[in-house]
Amino acid sequence: MVCCELVRVTAPVWSCQSCYHVFHLNCIKKWARSPASQADGQSGWRCPACQNVSAHVPNTYTCFCGKVKNPEWSRNEIPHSCGEVCRKKQPGQDCPHSCNLLCHPGPCPPCPAFMTKTCECGRTRHTVRCGQAVSVHCSNPCENLLNCGQHHCAELCHGGQCQPCRIILNQVCYCGSTSRDVLCGTDVGKSDGFGDFGCLKICGKDLKCGNHTCSQVCHPQPCQPCPRLPHLVRCCPCGQTPLSQLLELGSSGRKTCMDPVPSCGKVCGKPLPCGSLDFIHTCEKLCHEGDCGPCSRTSVISCRCSFRTKELPCTSLKSEADATFMCDKRCNKKRLCGRHKCNEICCVDKEHKCPLICGRKLRCGLHRCEEPCHRGNCQSCWQASFDELTCHCGASVIYPPVPCGTRPPECTQTCARVHECDHPVYHSCHSEEKCPPCTFLTQKWCMGKHELRSNIPCHLADISCGLPCSATLPCGMHKCQRLCHKGECLVDEACKQPCTTPRADCGHPCMAPCHPSSPCPMTACKAKIELQCECGRRKEMMICSEASSTYQRIAAISIASKITDMQLGDSVEISKLITKKEIHQARLECDEECLALERKKRLAEAFHISEDSDPFNVRSSGSKFSDSLKDDARKDLKFVSDIEKEMEALVETVNKGKNSKKSHCFPPMNRDHRRIIHDLAQVYGLESVSYDSEPKRNVVVTAVRGKSICPPSTLTCVLEREMQSRPPPPIPHHRHQTDKNPASSNLQKIAKEPVIDYFDVQD
């Protein structure tokens, strides 16, 4: 019951003296010290089998009779016994004999000896077995004296005390005003010769003086002498002055009980029932006989809970009930249940028991607790079923009584229910309504019928292959871009993919939301194109519509200048200014740095300098920094300078150190600063990656040996040179040659000359 091991013949054991179960000694020690073995409301531990409470934990291994410690095992004797005579006495019996069997487990057998026993009334004797626990009765009347001391028992020979006397008598009280019918033997020894009990009324008998009656409660005779007799009264009515002193002052002496008691003339001063513990009210009248009159003062009384007080005249306090009142304060203390507040008005309760019913659901989940509201967990449900509880197939059974909330028994048989598929069943019989899903591996098509998937559990119905759907949408122009899915591609909505029809003017896609039944709308093209200057040094990304409008403005200016030539009689060709090809060939203007590079190239050609030597640093002086990077850097030069110092130090550390890679983590910063770091990392040949999310997003740059290199001039130096004042450029000398391409030459001239707005052309 406390372990799963067998009790072997050589193992130390302990045997319960109540149920005689045998346990391992070490196991019963652990059980006795565990909290589960503690007896409720008693000091000790419970036997796991019979729940008998023992006070001491066993520490030694003894034989069954308890005479030998650590008995040795012998093949010819019972295991764990000493082999000697038991000699144990029968517990709870008057048998003087001891057990004559060898040391044995279990209880001792009944004593086989015979002895003579008397019957219960003691008049006859009988021979019976010593171990017989049944008492002996004869057929004669008992005749023992009853509790009244007058009558004898008329029942047959019986055990125990006789029943009280059943004869009914009539008794009179001491004062003679009340009588009652009682069983014989009630209030024996209280009779005074006239009455047998006190009726709690005033006696009222005439005293010996003949003038007064007894004022005591009904009592045995005789009555006390008259309290007003002259030899009993020794003080004035208020008790402050002896009568002997008043006689000396001239008061007349008393001869009978009817004579008045002389008054001393002082204030009475007897304590009145009103007032409080701190201030006791006294009688203010002069010394007098009889009861004191009503008090003329006021008393402060408290409510039941002592929270409030009020002042009342003492005359209104006629009883103890008038000395208290109820206030309107509600008790805010928690009741014993710990769930509800007391909320009683003027509460005087100390325990605050909760009168509500608990009502919480029990562990069975079917019934609610019907006990008064309490702390802690509710007890187990007392309901029980007397029907057999079986599993679904009926192989396992729990026999009644079955406690409420008991789950059906577990069954090891294979589930015998009808299943949706024909695959083998591997799960056991269960009490749940739904069977576990079938996990047999099968082949199934994905939802879009793209491929046949293998090793798919049988219960999985909708399988996605992870490939794009690629089904043609209702518009007929696009295909579904969702991953393999179930059902229709578009449900109650139209295709919103961008239109791919080429534009008539620039050839870029329309990019408007899909419009299969209507022509493409006339909107500005948002595609980005790359524009270059004549020498190819400057590059810039521009929106197609903005580039076209810029070229149209320049072409309009060029046409306006040629119109002036036409007015002079010259013929001009403008076809190349208005073709789409020329619009696509819109270029940027060369800046001063482009002109400087062109001069250096012409000087190198004039002096026959090869391209490999590069004495003017033409190739290396080409700016590696984009215009957008320069614009961002001009906003915060100090930040750019610090970043370049970090990158230069990182590149030098990698080139001079042992490691081929080294990283540097910049602190979190905003998006503009992170963009500057990414652009500078490309110039320095560093790898840059952004980590984390806003606002903790930061950049980590990594330098690689052989790939990362510092540029010949930093971005800070380039910006400082550009901000310094430049000398005016040299005057170009143009040769008078025939212009083979008048349209392009005029376009370049116009681009360099000040813009003349002839026709007020708008962008």
UniProtKB/TrEMBL annotation:
Compartments it resides in: Nucleus
GO molecular-function term, one example from the UniProt record: transferase activity
Keyword vocabulary terms for this entry: DNA-binding, Metal-binding, Nucleus, Phosphoprotein, Repeat, Repressor, Transcription, Transcription regulation, Transferase, Ubl conjugation pathway, Zinc, Zinc-finger
GO cellular component, one term: nucleus
Domain RING-type intervals: 2-51
CDD domains (UniProt xref): NF-X1-zinc-finger, R3H_NF-X1, RING-CH-C4HC3_NFX1
PROSITE patterns: R3H (PS51061), ZF_RING_2 (PS50089)
Coiled coil residues, start to end: none
Gene Ontology biological process: negative regulation of transcription by RNA polymerase II
Main localization category: nucleus
Pfam families assigned: R3H, zf-NF-X1
Stretches the record annotates as Disordered: 723-749
Gene3D superfamilies to which the protein is assigned, alphabetical: R3H-like domain (3.30.1370.50)
Family: Belongs to the NFX1 family.
PANTHER family with a match to the protein in the record: NUCLEAR TRANSCRIPTION FACTOR, X-BOX BINDING 1 NFX1 (PTHR12360), TRANSCRIPTIONAL REPRESSOR NF-X1 (PTHR12360:SF12)
Protein name: Transcriptional repressor NF-X1
Native source species: Leptonychotes weddellii
